[in-house]
Amino acid sequence: MLKLIQAWGSGVRRWLFLLVLNTAVVAQATAEDAVRLPVVTVQSQGVQSTHAVTRIANSQDRTRELSELLAPAAGVQVRSSGGLGAYAEASLRGSAARHVQVLFDGIPLELAGGQAINLALFPTAVVGRADIYRGGAPLALGASGAGAIDLRPPEQAVSGVQAGYGSFATWRGAVLGGWRGGLLSLGREMSDNNFPIRNPYKPFDPADPQRLAEEPRAHAGRDQHFGLLRHSWAWGDAGMDALVYGFSQDQALPDRVNSSDPGTTLGTDLSLANLRWRTADEAYVALQWQHLREHYADPGSRIGLGDQDLRMRSRRLALSSGDDGTHFGWFGQAAWHDYHSLDATAPQAARRVRRHQLTLAGVWHARPRQALALDASLHVNALRDDVADQDPRSRSQDELFFEPQLAWRYQRAGAWCAPLGHVAYRQRAPGFVERYGDRGYITGNPALKPESLTLLDAGLACQAERLSVRGAVFAQDLRNAISFVYDARGVGRAVNTDRAVIYGLEVETDWHVSALTDLSVNFTWLESEDRTEVRAAQGRQLPGRARWQGYARINQGLPASGLPGRWRLFHEFLFEGEQYYDTSNLLKAPTTRLHSSGLHVDAGGVGLGLEVRNVLDQTHAQFNGFPRPGRSYHLSFKTTFD
């Protein structure tokens, strides 16, 4: 397999090679699970869809963060820098997080011009489910890079109260008001995040008997407020959907040496709005708005390389329309991005960038045989960056991308197994920070070239009455990858240096053992190779990607007895092994072995839950120097009203 990947050419030769290899991709499963739904297929207007999606429901695990909800899915790797509210990002099949398109209610989140999306901006109280597309995605989701994660708000119009308390002074609360066609949710979450850690960075004192003892994580508290309002109007077979979402968080940022009060803080305010008008045949026109404001203060230069008082603003306005018919589909979007930053300690270095983007896409649904479905699509993206800067290097940029995709599916009536296939070519324009860096210790590079990514998925899925088994192989070829190279002063500059190949294997199964027992297991093997010209990294494994990943969960319902309500026990195990923090593979991350258990009971509209996470109290860190919590306990309560 590696020799084949190394033989990839460019242009037409590469596409012909991929089309020969392209045989199948992960298909769907139809069995249902009360907590985690397996793979299903998205279909529209009776079209036999070629896109498969892993759909993760959030019906029970309300006390978890979004990063914890997504991590068990096959092919998904989540990295978090701490406890509640800490920065977290997701990658799909080894791709960089900035290649993953994240959406909320179908709104593409493209804040700060193409940077990775922080999953902590969306508490699970406002997420009803997450749809994960590993590879191809529906036309309306736009260019999906290496995949897409579409976060969907709750759809049920119910009223109720949710509350929770957990270790490290973690509080959660939300009030929901539901009516026919609408939902209002208001909530707050906060935590001291004072979980015990072992601090390898404190000054070494051999005479100190407590030098190896654990100490509380310092200066890591978070306080979040959020609100969600959605409503739908129906006029015959047509209608309109409206959504407004607001999020605010104040957080203290700890440093590596775990200082008691380094004084570094980050304030974040996010607002989203989406107004969508749809016709009887599901054609639509949508107006989208998003606004992100951040205030980063590091007066003591404890995290960055210099005093900073940085205020950043990112806005996006988009008008989109589309229709996916039986034989043809189309999508169009005009978007305007605006990014502005000002450092009060160096006001002369203020940056202002505007990006204008036009996207046109079309898909052809070919059905040459009753059992065979072919989808060929093309995205055309035109971008222009206008820079308001005195630096002559920061000139305006014009770019034009062509992104083709081919997917197919073959499934005979009554057949247990179905192969699917997908091959695509993607490009990503440099983000504003990468091209016009202004973070104090990062220097942008206006001459950056776009990253390009060629993807191939192949797999097979089999579905019986109670058992579904799915397997897939995948490969990616990344060129002109953007990374930061640091000089002797520790200042980084974005450059096009890397080329990498990634390939691997996924296997997942869902088994409905009995009316009371469900079992889910998945496994991922991922190989990655850095093809950069830098000798220290050449041939090494890409950092932040685990070579081995596995997950298992059993849900066990208790038989009816004298106890009121429905009782459910669960135990899960998450494994991640052989990954590195650095490009030279000198800093190896500890192997992750996380066990979690819980008990939930639902009786008469009232639900209670007790969970113990990281039962064995394992120390682990997904970012070097920023540990994750050890063993923790969580209580949850919810009630609904008619």
Automatic annotation (TrEMBL):
One of its GO terms (cellular component) is cell outer membrane. Residues 1-29 form the signal peptide. GO terms for molecular function: siderophore uptake transmembrane transporter activity. Residues 251-590 form the TonB-dependent receptor-like beta-barrel domain. It is a multi-pass membrane protein. InterPro entries: Beta-barrel_TonB, Beta-barrel_TonB_sf, Plug_dom, Plug_dom_sf, TonB-dep_rcpt-like. Keywords: Cell outer membrane, Membrane, Receptor, Signal, TonB box, Transmembrane, Transmembrane beta strand, Transport. Residues 48-148 form the TonB-dependent receptor plug domain. The keyword Transport applies. GO terms for biological process: siderophore transmembrane transport. It is found in: Cell outer membrane. SUPFAM superfamilies: Porins. Belongs to the TonB-dependent receptor family. Hemoglobin/haptoglobin binding protein subfamily. PANTHER family: HEMOGLOBIN AND HEMOGLOBIN-HAPTOGLOBIN-BINDING PROTEIN 1-RELATED, TONB-DEPENDENT OUTER MEMBRANE RECEPTOR. This is TonB-dependent receptor plug. It comes from Oceanococcus atlanticus. The lineage of its organism: Bacteria, Pseudomonadati, Pseudomonadota, Gammaproteobacteria, Chromatiales.
